[in-house]
Amino acid sequence: MNSTIILKGNILYTPRPSEFVAIQQGYVIAVDGVVVHCGESIPPAYGEHPITDYGDHLIIPGFVDTHAHAPQYCNRGLGMDKELLPWLETYTFPEEAKFSDKEYARLVYGAFVHDLWRNGTTRSILFGTIHKDSTLVLMELLQKAGLSAYVGKVNMDRNSPEFLIEDTHQSLADTKEWLEASAQFGPLVKPIITPRFVPSCTSELMSGLGNLAQAYNVPVQSHLSENHGEIDWVAALLPEAANYTDVYYEHHLMGKVPTVMAHCIHLSDVEMDRMAETQTMVSHCPYSNVNLSSGIAPIRKLFERKIPIGLGSDISGGHIVSMAKVLTEAIGLSKMKWVEVDQMYAPLTLSEAFYMATKGGGKFFGKVGSFEKGCELDALVIDDTTLFDPNERSLEERLERWLYVGDDRHIVERYVAGKVAPEPTN
Amino acid sequence: MNSTIILKGNILYTPRPSEFVAIQQGYVIAVDGVVVHCGESIPPAYGEHPITDYGDHLIIPGFVDTHAHAPQYCNRGLGMDKELLPWLETYTFPEEAKFSDKEYARLVYGAFVHDLWRNGTTRSILFGTIHKDSTLVLMELLQKAGLSAYVGKVNMDRNSPEFLIEDTHQSLADTKEWLEASAQFGPLVKPIITPRFVPSCTSELMSGLGNLAQAYNVPVQSHLSENHGEIDWVAALLPEAANYTDVYYEHHLMGKVPTVMAHCIHLSDVEMDRMAETQTMVSHCPYSNVNLSSGIAPIRKLFERKIPIGLGSDISGGHIVSMAKVLTEAIGLSKMKWVEVDQMYAPLTLSEAFYMATKGGGKFFGKVGSFEKGCELDALVIDDTTLFDPNERSLEERLERWLYVGDDRHIVERYVAGKVAPEPTN
């Protein structure tokens, strides 16, 4: 009962950060959602299968968003004149409190999932809120939309507004219950352990979450080293810790299961060594880092140390869902680091940023984000004909232009793990 | 034969950089294209006139783009991994050469003018190419679209590719002929003297252009202090000049008629003094400065010295036509200057950036970019209902969100000097 699909079009992907593979009028073939061939012709074994021909359109891997807060969707583009901590107090926490109401959650999460779909984000790693039932609603909506995601019920038991603080034992009990309920959603929508960040979690809570992650073999996500105020706060809360990174490490929230940490802007060399040793993924969130004046992450340095890097929208610290725009912003920010701060940080190239937004972040899901053999087939079909240009352009130039100036209007089809994801009706 | 219009809706504008005026369900009234009243009610004298009621929509001033290269429209979003000088050689100059063909010009300029319209840019200050006839085509298309602009035939007689270099005398003769032909386009579309930049203009050409600007009472635009390579080049070409700025000043291209200079990233204090003394406008082009790794202009410092500042898309050094996006990028860049370079540069606030994109740049056109009495009425009507949010928001919050996450799909009407500008058909 194998299901074989063959897509034809102008194919572009980045097997390595350093280069695009571009195939004019090529074919990508998947069996049961997994790529078996990508090239200029169809191998004889697949000669009998029907072809979905996308003509002159571009076919690229689906985008991977490695960090977004689904419940902050209504706050995108608001409060952009504030820094992290006051912004959390004024906008974020009051909004997240509303997700104690499952119906409010269904309304907002439905709109958010539609926006992920619209912008071609086929995979995402998401924060929910502390509310387990609303978090299950988000997982249900993603599954119905045919999108893949890791979704986390958030844990926070200190230094938070009264209306968002959990009792430590209840938090762990709720997390266990939610982990077990999550099994219903199948292979594309899975749970991820989600301590909000060190300042809002007691040591007891973090240890308990580290144990749950290992017991259920579930990955971990959190925030790390976003802002100097936050870093100083962690040092004051845990004066015995060697550094911010080691707080997570010592609580087994890093190194035991796969972990992704958002931001990582101000890491010391010792902390970078720990990230590399544990192969903890950095979720680089350029729009958020700009909006909240957090600073420019040293992406070139992290990259050279072989730390895995994905890109994140960080809705709503970041305001833009589109990973095409997030990746061009990452390039722009890297240029500003190079020109304004230190010429040792060579700017990101287009292929490097595209890699991070596809295969780089995709590693967290297994083999995802590329059209190499063995990868799950996530794909976007791009019709760029309305981007006016009477001149002949290479496929790379057409892709560059769409990434910089195109938008969701040009995405005409989305595939996730080999299946078309139609527009979510909710 | 006075023509009176009354618009009703949620009105926002920035009479000063420091604050928005926001009027819930207010009225803006214009007679013969000029605002006579903006407030919460209709003065008795206008009680008999019909009202155009935009319901719950936002009404804001039209955007002013103080720097864009119309002939580079086809190159937007291409070659973004290059710096200024190689990017000019590879992409810009070969494209501009095509504008010797008036039909090619009509095709590309038509698409560009449509994109200005689509994004709500009611006023713009544009570079054409060296070709006078094609430049007249651009002016004709703007006039037909009902948009207002200063348009320049470019001058360049050295250090340029052979196919774009002018003979000095022919360049001045063509400019004179074009200035005279420009009179046909009426008050909304006017000529501006446009030496490309110092490296591509001989002293003789610059002097001749300075004389023409004064003789015809026409303003001047050019580029200034964008990139270190360019600045060093100017110093090598004119070793006797005190600095880059003074080359323009000494040739009467600054201080005699209104002048706007794009970029101004690396000005010395002495140069800033000259800009302030001559009230030369800076066109700050944040996307371009990022894309070409030019650096972050010290906008706070320029602002404090009372130098006039507008914002520019700089198509195609910048890739984004939308001034809503250019203004949010200006805010983002100013935050990076503050956090990564020097905390003396306080980040731009939303109202400051909005002011620059409306009334700030509008000053080049007279009284434009605000709804204060005496201003020409340029307005955009924004329907933000499809930007999902079940929560009540203030008018400022709704505007902030639209600027950050909205797009042309939400602009439902454009007014220029009191008249609706319908979609250009061309």
From TrEMBL, chains A, B:
Binds 1 zinc ion per subunit. It catalyses: guanine + H2O + H(+) = xanthine + NH4(+). SUPFAM superfamilies: Composite domain of metallo-dependent hydrolases, Metallo-dependent hydrolases. Keywords: Hydrolase, Metal-binding, Zinc. It is an enzyme of class 3 (hydrolase). InterPro entries: Amidohydro-rel, Guanine_deaminase, Metal-dep_hydrolase_composite, Metal_Hydrolase, Metallo-dep_hydrolases. Residues 59-420 form the Amidohydrolase-related domain. Pathway: Purine metabolism; guanine degradation; xanthine from guanine: step 1/1. It holds the Pfam family Amidohydro_1. Its EC number is 3.5.4.3. The keyword ATP-binding does not apply. Its cofactor is Zn(2+). Catalyzes the hydrolytic deamination of guanine, producing xanthine and ammonia. Belongs to the metallo-dependent hydrolases superfamily. ATZ/TRZ family. This is Guanine deaminase. It comes from Veillonella rogosae JCM 15642. The lineage of its organism: Bacteria, Bacillati, Bacillota, Negativicutes, Veillonellales.
